[in-house]
Amino acid sequence: MLLLVTGATGKVGRTLIDRILADPALAHINIRALCHNRVLEERDRLSVVRGSIDDRDAVDAALADVTHVVHLATCKEIPETVMDVTVKGLFWLLEAFRESPTASRFVLIGGDAGVGHFFYPRPEPITEDMPHRAYPGCYALSKVLEEVMIEQYGIQYDLNWCCLRAPWIMEKDDFRYTLSFGDDLFGGPDWKTMVPADIAERARETGAVPLLRDADGDPIKRNFVHVDDLIAAIVAALDHPGARRQTFNVCMDEPVDYAAVAAYLNRTRGLGSVDVVSDYHSTWLDNSKAKYVLGWRPAYDLDRLIEAAWTYQRAPDDPRKVWYPG
After folding, report:
1. What is the number of structural domains in the chain?
2. Cα 270 from Cα 142, distance rounded (Å)
3. Which of 96, 203, 225, 247 measures 20 to 30 Å from 232, CA to CA?
4. In a domain, 198, yes or no
5. Using CA atoms, how far apart are residues 175 and 224, in angstroms rounded to an integer?
6. CA–CA distance, 210 with 70 (Å, rounded to integer)
7. How far apart are CA 325 and CA 78, in angstroms?
8. Tens digit of each residue's pLDDT (9 = 90 or more) over 268-318
9. Strand (E) positions, the chain?
10. pLDDT surpasses 80 at 8
């Protein structure tokens, strides 16, 4: 197997490559990384092609002799480049893949942004059969377009695709910093803008965490997945016969309940919490299909997610970085 990985220098790409190269059971997989702004060092079973996925010649070169693709490259809230990366880039990848005599399976990593994340009320769990419903912004729109494009290539050309739809992906101490009232916040919402300034300041000083609530005052439930669990799903989907032209929600068994987070951190670390009322809504991604078809199981629950984030110690050469806005 020759696997092309786009977005290879990102959180998921790096972890996927390291996992494959380290696992003796996956020794039959050779990897080619398509790198643009950041570049990986080549090593045994890992080669690198430099170029942008919006460049057809670069894509054609990267796909030569490839059997499988894991498409991770994406673009957040950057209107100037989002269509070049997520539409034009995916189009060239799919065109080259469908014309390749060696092509076997194309795995797209989608996102719950394409079904609205926590922006819309949901009376029931979100399954793979629910229609797309992007929230405001170009990123969510791009995730809808990606899924529609790959589905249409299956219809038009019988392309063998699989989409793993993931919510917010956590690694290392990410989850801890999703709860920060400071400028070191990872992602959003921006908690310090949702409460009075003096309350935000006290939260920063004491390490208090947000307890996000909806307009009715109920604690919000929000979907996450740990990068290790997503990698396990990717590996399972690469050649699974049941994954052909199928979309799977890949997430924790239960969404993160902000009230449960606050209670756990108070009980284990004596941290307080701050109520944050919002216009967001609880959502629950249903991962039953991935468990039933792929035989996949997430290893991370809420307790493990919190403990992993709070006990992680960063090395001096591994500072926290924000690679993109939004």
Report:
1. 1
2. 41
3. 96
4. no
5. 9
6. 35
7. 8
8. 999 999 999 999 999 999 999 999 999 999 999 999 999 999 999 999 888
9. 2-6, 30-35, 46-50, 68-71, 105-111, 161-166, 168-170, 209-213, 221-222, 224-226, 246-249, 256-257, 273-277
10. yes
Structure tokens at 189: 């919402």
Give 254's contacts (C-beta < 8 A, 6+ positions apart). 221, 284, 301, 302
| Per-position b or e across 157-170, b if 16+ CB within 10 A of its CB | eebbbbbbbbbbbb
Pairing of strands 256-257, 221-222: antiparallel
Q: Give me the domain span that covers residue 138.
A: 2-170+223-252+284-299
71 neighbors 10 (Cβ within 8 angstroms): no
Q: Has residue 50 been placed in a domain?
A: yes
Structure tokens at 123: 């009376």
Farthest-apart Cα atoms in the chain, separation: 63
Q: How do residues 221-260 score in pLDDT, each as one tens digit?
A: 999 999 999 999 999 999 999 999 999 999 999 999 999 9
pLDDT at residue 158 above 90? yes
Q: Is the dihedral of CA 66, 85, 289, 303 positive or negative?
A: positive
257 domain-assigned: no
Whole-number average pLDDT of the chain: 95
* Res. 75 pLDDT band, cuts 50 70 90: confident
Domain CATH code at residue 97: 3.40.50.720
Q: Among positive and negative, which fits the CA dihedral 115, 118, 124, 126?
A: positive
- What residue has token string 């216009």? 279
Q: Does residue 306 belong to any structural domain of this protein?
A: no
pTM for the full predicted model: 0.96
* DSSP, residue by residue, 281-321: ----B--HHHHHHH-------HHHHHHHHHH----TT----
